[in-house]
Amino acid sequence: MRRRVDVLCVQETKWKGQKAKEVEDTGFKLWYTGTTSNKNGVGILVNKSLRDGVVDVKRQGDRMILVKLVVGDLVLNVISAYAPQVGHNESTKRELRKAWRTWIRVQRGKRAKVARTKWWKLKGEASQAFRERVIKEGPWEEGGDANMMWTSMATCLRKVAVEEFGVTKGSRREAKDTWWWNAEVQKVIREKKDCFRFLYLDRSAANMEKYKVAKKAAKRAVSEARGRAYEDLYQHLNTKEGERDIYKMAKFRERKTRDVNKVKCIKDGDDQLLVKDEAIKRRWREYFENLYNGEAESSTIELDDSFDDTSMCFVRRIQESEVKEALMRMKGGRAMGPDADGEIQGAK
After folding, report:
1. Cα 48 from Cα 6, distance rounded (Å)
2. How many CB atoms lie within 10 A of CB 242?
3. What local confidence, expressed as pLDDT, does residue 99 receive?
4. What is the pLDDT of residue 110?
5. Measured between alpha carbons, how far is 154 from 157 in angstroms, rounded to an integer?
6. Spatial distance between the Cα atoms of 6 and 45, rounded to a whole number of angstroms
7. Low-confidence spans in the chain with pLDDT less than 50
8. For site-directed labelling of 250, which of 121, 201, 222, 347 has its Cα 20 to 30 A away?
9. Beta strand 74-81 with 42-46: parallel, antiparallel or unpaired?
10. Which distant-in-sequence residues (6+ apart) come within 8 Å of 73 by Cβ?
């Protein structure tokens, strides 16, 4: 998106279901909820750089959705709501207010900056101005602690660089889909970049014409290579191996529709989300201490100490050669022994 939005709340999506889906060619993932087609519905869009931090999703009918997002050490609750107005009774409005009171958590904190200093401008006249300011404003007095001197100089350098060169907006372009690029495509793309570099240094008519020709050739080569790659892919899907790939692709797409792909955080005894490593380790330690040393109901297993003549007889130890032979007979992904289906059919 042109405005570099990371999180966007949308209303009146008018989609039925409670699902998640990726928005193609944008890098965003959408979580939405709706109970009736072409009516109401809310959703939340999260950018690619933040969507892996989603740890929980809650939905309230087709009027409210909450996405819990972990950014660094902060836990953010993003809520998208669509309040009922005309044609709804007081009970419906009361339910919405109750959900608001349950979900909303006021969390304060500073958002981490990802902007970078434009150090690449350190050349020419800008380099000379930067040097003069550093010499004039820098703490160059000798003596004192070395670490303090280093910290003071580094702070001065960063401050002058930000004021002289500026900072970026903190965004980054999404990676393009280039799995089908071949050597020919890479060659014409490299030529187009070279022409653009010459055009940036000298905006003459000749350089402009060369760049237009190179851009047109690159566009044609990319289109042809992509067409051939997809044609080969379709031919491959018609084979036996391609059928397996279809199932893999279906599983991959289903995995993308899940609300939470990876569990990165746990909750404490008060149902509060833990994001720091030390707090998570401490919670696991408390859990296992209560599990093994707690005052829970006794889990002692009463063993049957009755023995008969059969159980008192000598039992030969299993030999190492027998274990190796059994391992050799094992099939991948299956345990030794008869199948359950075969036993059931035999019983019939």
Report:
1. 8
2. 13
3. 67
4. 35
5. 5
6. 8
7. 105-113, 340-348
8. 222
9. unpaired
10. 275, 276
**What pLDDT, on the 0 to 100 scale, is given for residue 113?**
45
Write down the residue that tokens 């919405």 correspond to: 96
Read off the DSSP letter of residue 257: T
Predicted local confidence at residue 158, as pLDDT:
86
Query: Angle formed by the axes of helices 240-256 and 205-237, to 10°?
Result: 110
* Alpha carbons 147 and 269: distance in angstroms, whole number: 43
Residue-by-residue DSSP string for 141-182: ---S-HHHHHHHHHHHHHHHHHHHH-B--S--PPPP--TT--
pTM of the model: 0.41
* Type of residue at 163: E
**Is residue 129 within 8 Å of residue 164, measured between CB atoms?**
yes
> What distance in Å separates the CA atoms of residue 149 and residue 166, rounded to the nearest whole number?
25
Distance of CA 243 to the CA centre of its chain: 29
Degrees (nearest 5) of the Cα angle 48, 54, 58?
Answer: 130
Question: d(Cα 36, Cα 33) in Å, to the nearest integer?
Answer: 10
From residue 26, give the alpha-carbon distance in Å to each of 29, 268, 286: 9, 36, 43
Distance CA 194, CA 13 (A): 45
Specify whether the CB–CB gap between 45 and 28 falls below 8 A: yes
**Rounded to whole angstroms, how far apart are CA atoms 74 and 105?**
13
Q: Which residues contact 59 (CB under 8 A, 6 or more apart)?
A: 18, 33, 65, 66
Per residue in 226-263, pLDDT (tens digit) is 888 888 888 887 888 887 888 887 887 777 777 776 66
Nearest CA-CA partner of 20 in 80, 60, 67, 63: 67
Q: Which residue has the tokens 């339910």?
A: 95
Residue 102 has a pLDDT of: 66
Cα separation, 175 vs 26, whole angstroms: 10
Interatomic CA distance for residues 20 and 36, integer angstroms: 17
Q: Secondary structure of 230-249 in the HEC alphabet? A: HHHHHHHHCCHHHHHHHHHH
Residue 117 near residue 161 (C-beta atoms within 8 A): yes
